[in-house]
Amino acid sequence: MTVQTQEEVREIVNFSPDGLVVTSFYLNVDATEFPSDAALQTSLDSLMHTAESRRKDMEEGLSHEATESLRGDLTALREFFADDLQREETKGIAIFSCSAQNFWQVIQMPMPVGNQVYFGPRPHISPIATFVSHTKPTAILLTDQQHARIFTMSGSEVREWTDFEDNAPQRTAQRGGSQSNYQRRSDQWKQHHIDHAAELVLKLLQHYPFDWLILGTEVQSQATLEQALHPYLKDRVVGEISVRIDADSAEIIEKAEEIREQVESRHIDTLIEQIQEFAGAGGRGAIGLEKTLEALNEQKIHILLLQQGLVHQGSECPNCGMLFADQQKTCVACNEPTRPVDDVIDLAVQKAIELGSTVEVATEFEKLLPIESIGAILYY
Fold first, then answer.
1. Strand partners, 120
2. Rounded Cα gap, residues 26 and 112, in angstroms
3. CA distances from 289 to 130, 297, 307, 360 (A)
4. Ramachandran region of residue 88, left (φ > 0), alpha (ψ -120 to 50) or beta?
5. Is a pLDDT exceeding 90 seen at residue 25?
6. Cα gap 231→301, rounded to integer Å
7. Strand, coil or helix: what is 201?
8. CA dist 300 to 9, 294, 373, Å?
9. Which residue ranges form the domains of the chain, and what is each CATH number?
10. Residue range 255-281, pLDDT digits in tens
11. Which DSSP helix (H) or strand (E) runs through 181?
């Protein structure tokens, strides 16, 4: 299974079995860090040892059903890595399991993750939010005077949708022909070809929505191609790549991924500026953990922006779900006792996704210092 959208992440987050524990297991399988099976096995064994130790610590407070379910999760993990692990083009694996509910999700990611194991009432999904944030659905349109190729990248899935050729008019030796007539027919056919390619991408958008569009064409045709695009497509154009129309698909995707990362960095810069502007005006912006959680509790967040790896202890109200940046004992909303949590950031990400908010994660080191590592753009 590959997660491609935050809606699919939301389906995982919504799993919350009553009285049971969900195992969230993240393993780095990047071949550049673990080139041999033996090296990877050593890393896996260490993480499984950690999981077993934590399981034993937890079992005293669990019901018999929850205890057996947790043991079943670890057995299923061992069987999976013994029989089913495929590392081709996969650098990180996330597995979510609750054996008593037959819940089992394996997520393969093209980016490394830190080795982690969590036992809790819900899946621990922050690393997946980072993955989805940096792999937004993107289309690629390559054209020359006669050919066109269309790709999409979404999550870890790459697909080439079409590779077509429009037969351009050929110069004939027939008497009475002229250079001007031939050139006119040739220009008309090139325009038809570009219009055809743009129409196909528009149809693709209608059936396979994407956020960004990357173009690749000859310099002399670039303006013509951009003019041919529907306004819906023009709004999604984020950059151009220079590559031969017959290039290997791996080369095309590599160049497109470079563009996407550059655009993602600029996108984060824009969000920082917007959050600062809106917060400064006392309006639709929240800066820092306390203000961001206040907005999240009020269900006001449109876009949640946080620094990758951010962890902060806090508290949660089991009764109404309110989240707090400190270890306060009583919920200010319902006056019920709260419980301490080791990572209120993960709960905030989960809640934001449940509410339909967009989650953006900055991976560049200390990128979000101007907004205290976390902030939000609000609906109102």
1. 22
2. 10
3. 18, 12, 11, 15
4. beta
5. yes
6. 28
7. helix
8. 20, 9, 19
9. 6-133 (3.30.960.10), 138-247 (3.30.420.60), 267-378 (3.30.1330.30)
10. 999 999 999 999 999 999 999 999 987
11. helix 179-207
Q: Please check the confidence at residue 283 and state whether its pLDDT lies above 90.
A: no
Q: Is 374 helix (H, G, I), strand (E, B) or coil?
A: strand
Q: Are 311 and 282 in contact (CB under 8 A)?
A: no
Q: What is the C-alpha to C-alpha distance for residues 247 and 242, in angstroms, rounded to an integer?
A: 10
Strands 22-28 and 92-98: antiparallel
45 vs 98: CA distance, rounded Å: 21
Among the listed ranges 61-65, 168-172, 175-179, which one has the minimum average pLDDT value? 168-172
H-state helical runs in the chain: 6-13, 37-59, 64-83, 126-133, 179-207, 222-228, 231-234, 249-280, 289-297, 344-354
pLDDT of residue 294: 96
Residues present in the chain in total? 380
Distance in angstroms (rounded) separating the CA atoms of residues 274 and 285: 8
- Dihedral angle at the C-alpha atoms of 118, 310, 300, 237, nearest 10 degrees? -110
pLDDT at 194: 86
Sign of the Cα pseudo-torsion (54, 353, 374, 363, in order): positive
Task: Quickly count: other Cβ atoms within 10 Å of residue 85's Cβ.
Answer: 16
